[in-house]
Amino acid sequence: MRLDILDHGYKPGTKLLFALIRLFSGHPVPDAARLVFYRPDFYGAPAKEFTQEAMRGPSAWSVGDRELMAAYVSKVNECEFCIGAHTATSRLAYQDEPRVAAVLADLDAAPIEDPLRATLRMLGELTRQGTVRAADMREVLAAGASPEQIQDALAVCAAFNITNRLGDAFGFALLTPEGYEAGARHLLKRGYR
């Protein structure tokens, strides 16, 4: 069920900003971005800061890797808006559409490095079960991921488990392929600020 606040819960200045963005970009402001403008002191500012750090802060994972993690977590959660958004962004970051599609279709057969595969597997388990075992972490370490990479991946997982649930609770509208592409270009250029 779409909550009305995504359409009407803003001050006049924010409404004007949304209109200008639509005018210049040719696309409506995605609901994920609209949500951070609603009660920015409560959710918006802290969420943007946390997500920016998880997705664009220093990490041994590339931007493409972290966007793929976001897409994968979103797929496990069945959040259609976020699957579309982060699949598009990881595709652009990697410049490799078949690789991204392969991971989302069949993680075990996808042509990716073992540390990333093991990390995605662990993030999927954490997302589905709400917990991981020590043995799961040992597998990720044995595959070649560092403790820092695991910590960074867990931050991505946390950010997108929250965003996925909010997307579903607020009924984020799906975008056109062109809308997802425009959003992906924006995320790669500006990040999550």
From the structure above, extract its key features.
mainly alpha, 11 helices, globular, 75% helix, single chain, 193 residues
Question: What does this protein structure show overall?
Answer:
The protein is mainly alpha-helical. It has a single domain (5-190), classed as AhpD-like. Helices cover 75% and strands 0% of the residues. It is built from 11 helices and no strands. The chain has helices at residues 5-8, 12-25, 31-37, 40-56, 63-77, 80-94, 97-105, 114-129, 134-142, 147-170, 177-190. α8 (114-129) runs antiparallel to α9 (134-142) and α8 (114-129) crosses α10. The longest helix is centred in the C-terminal third of the chain and has 24 residues, at 147-170. The relative contact order is 0.18.
**Uncertain runs:** none
CATH superfamily: AhpD-like
Q: How many distinct domains?
A: 1
At the fold tier of CATH, the topology name is AhpD-like
CATH architecture field: Up-down Bundle
- How many distinct beta strands? 0
What share of residues is helical? over 70%
Question: Which word captures the global form?
Answer: globular
Determine the strand fraction and express it as a percent band.
under 5%
Q: How does the major sheet shape up?
A: none
Cα radius of gyration in angstroms = 17 Å
Mean pLDDT: 94
Question: Helix/strand/pairing class, anyone?
Answer: mainly alpha
Topology as a string of helices (H) and strands (E): HHHHHHHHHHH
Q: Number of DSSP helices?
A: 11
Termini Cα gap: 27 Å
Please write the CATH class name.
Answer: Mainly Alpha
